[in-house]
Specification:
Elements lengths: L2 H29 L5 H7 L2 H4 L7 H27 L3 H5 L1 H19 L13 H29 L7
Helix pairs in contact: 1-4, 1-7, 2-4, 4-7, 6-7
């Protein structure tokens, strides 16, 4: 993979990770009232540590945030690799970002059941809507726009 594509993907993914984390910290803490900023950050660590993540304080919150940023960078890399091969993705960052958000949310909602994450068994409509908004508006779209801007800035050649 070209270093410019790699850099655009990682930076795009990190941009999305930061925005979705901030959005979820605000909404889950102050609007939905089912978490604290610390719990939001510890949730990703619960994928590896189970319930122990919630008794680890800031060390597991940092671990969870690091895990989330790593996964988000991987999504950004995947998006950049596709964008470097598809003119449509570069020309339609809003639509491709929404598509990325839908795919990322679907895959991640399936994958979390493979780990030890504490998952709400029957999420209600508002919980699901909040996650949907988080993944589309605060993750997929920012990843697409940031990655596309960086790819265009470096004039990465597109295959098709």
């Amino acid at each position: 993979m070209d270093a410019r594509i790699f850099r655009a993907g990682v930076l795009g993914g990190l941009c999305g990770a930061l925005l979705i984390d901030l959005y979820l910290i605000v909404t889950e803490t102050y609007l939905i009232h089912n978490a604290t900023p610390l719990l939001v950050m510890q949730w990703d660590a619960s994928n590896a540590l189970g319930m122990a993540a919630y008794s680890g304080g800031w060390s597991t919150a940092i671990l969870g945030t690091g895990m989330h940023f790593t996964v988000s960078a991987c999504w950004g890399l995947l998006f950049a690799a596709v964008a470097a091969r598809s003119r449509w993705v570069l020309d339609h960052p809003l639509l491709s970002g929404i598509l990325l958000g839908v795919i990322a949310m679907g895959v991640m909602r399936a994958v979390i059941h493979l780990g030890h994450a504490i998952v709400h068994p029957f999420p209600n409509f508002w919980y699901f809507l909040n996650l949907f908004i988080a993944h589309e508006v605060f993750f997929g779209i920012p990843v697409a726009f940031a990655t596309n801007a960086l790819l265009r800035q470096h004039r990465v050649a597109v295959s098709s």
